[in-house]
Amino acid sequence: MGIIVSKVMEQNIKKQQEFMLHNSRLQMERQILMQNEMRERQMAMQIAWSREFLKYFGSFFALAAVGLSTGAIKRRKPGLFAPMVPLSFILAYQVDMAYGSFIHRMREEAESIMVAEADRLNLPHGTPTFESIEKVRRAKSHLLPLSEK
Predict the structure, then answer these.
(1) Beta strands in the chain (DSSP E)
(2) Which residues, including other chains, have CB under 8 Å from residue 114's CB and lie 6 or more apart?
(3) Cross-referenced InterPro entries, in alphabetical order (predicted)?
């Protein structure tokens, strides 16, 4: 009778462990999906910001180009064209960021860094562990007044 009970208990424990493993795997997959969706939303907001900024900077650039060109022609001072050089670089950068392949090139460079220069990505004192976080938490909890604990 005891052997049968222990076998049933072992089977139940094994099923429970499998169930817990399955649940933790599902939770991890959900967290990864959620983090990726948040990353995509942030990137979409960054691209949208770039496009909105481009509208304003493009208008400024057009007005500056017309004004500087008019001034250079009327006053016969070609030096008034000089500010157009840096402004055109900024405009080209913004166009590339908003509509070009800037993000693709940036992603490729990041992948290259991760492969060839992984040592540059290490955090000071290494990756945080549960123990290191708990140590800091306990140290800070000793400093808190009793009303905040």
Answers:
(1) none
(2) 121
(3) Plg-R(KT)
Q: What is the pLDDT of residues 11-27, one digit of tens each?
A: 889 899 999 999 999 99
Q: Which residue has the tokens 């166009």?
A: 95
Task: Judge contact between 149 and 141, C-beta under 8 A.
Answer: yes
Backbone phi, psi, residue 125, to 5°: 65, 15
Output the six-digit token pair for 35. Answer: 């983090």
Task: Report how far residue 103's alpha carbon sits from residue 43's, in angstroms, rounded to the nearest whole number.
Answer: 9
DSSP 76: T
* Distance (Å) of CA 22 to CA 8, 15, 35, 43: 21, 10, 20, 32
Structure tokens at 7: 């076998």
Asked if 98 contacts 44 with a C-beta cutoff of 8 angstroms, the reply is no
